[in-house]
Design brief:
single chain; alpha/beta; 8-stranded parallel β-barrel; EC 1.13.12.16; TIM Barrel; 301 residues; 16% strand; nitronate monooxygenase activity; binds flavin mononucleotide; 40% helix; 3-stranded antiparallel sheet; Nitronate monooxygenase; 2 domains; monooxygenase; 12 helices
Length: 301
């Protein structure tokens, strides 16, 4: 699939921003609000509890977006039991973009292209980026240090430079971006779009519990703890939620065994709240439209 298809997708956005997919947080309300505000909304298909619920969500999204672009995030790891069923269903709705997580995107690319969807892989290192390029993705989502949830270890400067050694195609950049300044910087690095998750956690359309949203509003960059103890891979968490779960943020236990079972994962993420280093600029509960308006003003400054 050619780069011009992605360019055409970007041209349909009023701001070069993706509302990044967030486990247990982003669903139809967020995706639709994002689309109507002029950015690219996305959600992980596993947020729908069953394939039946996913179908309802996809109907709602298709209707609510009314032709505006939207994206979905799919787990491609073979141990995710709903992987094939969710993908088949998703492709019937022809998302503009599919972002793959946790594994090789190889097996979905041909089918996604046949359905008219672009496939980008979410990667945290040049090694994974190269594997995704070799598999034939249309673009890469580079997750840099400071990202909410599972994070990358690399500075965006070093990461983009390393990837540009072998990939001159579309790039989306995520991790620590929450303001117009950050979006402008991502663009200056050559990214087509900025990938913002944490900035949307405390939005009206977010499925986060009220206490979670308030904790995001009350937290600063100093309250973000990076640990692999919860899920087995490095992720950023809110200090106060670790404390509430009986953990000592300054003395986190050793790495947990990675387990992509949906039910185990849901319990971890429901009880312990993820957020990235970009929490600082989140000062109040806002609608997605208000956040996009604020980012637009900042970007014009
Ligand atoms: C609460 C939360 C849940 C997340 N869940 C997912 C997920 O299910 N799939 C995924 O690919 N990324 C997930 N992410 C990562 C985001 O998609 C994105 O990479 C990240 O939020 C970007 O960094 P930022 O939070 O600094 O904006 C999650 C992030 C957060 C904060």
């Amino acid at each position: 699939m050619s780069h011009s298809r992605f360019e055409a997708l970007c041209a349909r956005l009023t701001l070069p921003v993706v509302q990044a997919p967030m486990f247990l947080i982003s669903g139809p309300d967020m995706v639709i609000a994002a689309a109507n505000a002029g950015i690219l909304g996305s959600f992980p298909t596993q947020n729908a509890r069953t394939s039946e619920q996913l179908k309802d969500w996809l109907d709602t999204i298709q209707q609510g977006c009314a032709g505006k672009p939207w994206a979905a995030n799919v787990i491609v790891h073979p141990t995710f039991e709903r992987r094939d069923a969710d993908l088949e269903l998703l492709l019937e709705y022809q998302p503009d973009l599919i972002v793959t997580a946790l594994g090789s995107p190889k097996h979905i690319i041909e089918r996604a292209h046949a359905a008219g969807s672009l496939v980008f892989a979410d990667v945290i290192s040049p090694v994974f980026a190269r594997k995704a390029v070799d598999a034939g993705v249309d673009g890469l989502v580079l997750i840099c240090s400071g990202a909410g949830g599972h994070t990358g270890p690399l500075s965006p400067f070093a990461f983009v430079d390393a990837v540009r050694e072998f990939w001159d195609g579309p790039l989306i950049l995520g991790g620590g971006i929450a303001t117009g300044r950050g979006i402008r910087s991502a663009r200056a690095l050559g990214a087509d779009l900025a990938y913002l998750g944490t900035r949307f956690l405390a939005s009206r359309e977010s499925m986060a519990a009220d206490g979670y949203k308030q904790m995001v509003i009350d937290s600063s960059v100093d309250d973000i703890i990076c640990s692999d103890a919860i899920t087995g891979v490095a992720a950023n968490w809110l200090r106060a939620s670790l404390q509430a779960a009986g953990l000592d943020p300054n003395n986190m236990p050793k790495k947990a065994e990675m387990n992509v079972s949906a039910s185990v994962d849901a319990k971890r993420w429901k009880d312990i709240w993820a957020a990235g280093q970009s929490v600082g600029p989140v000062h109040s509960l806002q609608s997605i439209q208000d956040i996009v308006d604020e980012l637009t003003l900042q970007l014009a400054e």
